[in-house]
Amino acid sequence: MAKCGAPTKAGGRCQRPVVTGTSRCAVHQGPWSAYGRAQQQEKEAKEKKRKIRKKR
After folding, report:
1. Count of alpha carbons within 13 Å of 31, Cβ hemisphere only?
2. pLDDT tens sequence across 26-52
3. Backbone φ and ψ of 6, nearest 5°
4. How far apart are CA 18 and CA 4, in angstroms?
5. Residue from 49, 47, 17, 23 nearest 35 by CA
6. How far is it, in rounded angstroms, from Cα 17 to Cα 2?
7. SS3 call for 48
8. In Å, how far are 6, 16, 33, 40, 48 from 43, measured between CA atoms?
9. Mean of per-residue pLDDT scores for the chain
């Protein structure tokens, strides 16, 4: 399995496994990545659905 490899605060390289479809782990990919963007959109959709249900 591939490793993240992002530089860490300690000066080494991250050894966490990468998220499928990306080159970084969940900690180092950030919200600007395709994976992070998809997670945000999913969260917004759930909130919108919940808001609609509350109004009824």
Report:
1. 4
2. 888 877 767 778 888 999 999 988 887
3. -70, 145
4. 5
5. 23
6. 6
7. helix
8. 26, 24, 15, 5, 9
9. 84
Half-sphere exposure (Cβ direction) of 3: Cα atoms closer than 13 Å: 8
Give every CB contact of residue 23 below 8 A, 6+ residues apart in sequence. Answer: 2, 4
- At 15, the amino acid letter reads Q
pLDDT at 55: 66
What's the pTM? 0.50
Both structure tokens of 19: 């998220």
And the tokens for 39?
Answer: 């997670």
